[in-house]
Amino acid sequence: MRTRLLLISHPATAAQRKGTFPADDPLDTRAVEEATSFRASHAGLLNADAALSSPAACALDTARALGLAATIVPDLADADFGRWRGRRLLDVANEDTNALDTWTRDPSAAPHGGESFDALTLRVGGWLDAFEQRGTVIAVTHAGVIRAALMHVLQAPSARFARIEVPPLSVVELQRDQRGWTWWPAPDRRS
């Protein structure tokens, strides 16, 4: 039996809409309504054999709004933003311009004391390589984690990370068979 993994990015949190680095923010009313609307319009997509979630409040809130009883998977956590966690991007850009510039251009750099993109990709890639569940699995997580999963599956150079956009409530489908993981077009199973 093949494995079908649907990675769903959580809706934007109020902090993200204000340009703030994530800090385990829960979903606000607007984001819960967006996830609930997604659930109503994509009911056929949400039928799965298992559901997983990042430990972050926004991912767990999303899973609940989608009607999923998700198991927490630490490897689905967002990147560790170190001392930038919870800070506005504009403030970091004004106070630590060189470090921010280095971080955005060098995937191995973590000048904020957190996790580099390369480290995130290694973590997520290790999780995918060890993944043993079969059937259809939904994982609610973060845009950066989904980017890292795609980079791992495609074996793309880490410098291409910034060229992948993952909007809120996006779905990326990965499938695994005897050849390994492959990326498939996002399903559109609206009810």
TrEMBL record:
Source superkingdom: Bacteria
Matches recorded under InterPro entries: His_Pase_superF_clade-1, His_PPase_superfam
UniProt entry keywords in alphabetical sequence: Hydrolase
SUPFAM superfamilies, per the entry: Phosphoglycerate mutase-like (SSF53254)
Keyword Hydrolase: yes
Principal EC category: hydrolase
Record-level Gene Ontology MF annotations: hydrolase activity
Listed Pfam families: His_Phos_1 (PF00300)
Statement: the UniProt record of this protein carries the keyword Transcription: no
EC number, UniProt record: 3.1.3.-
Name this polypeptide is given: Histidine phosphatase family protein
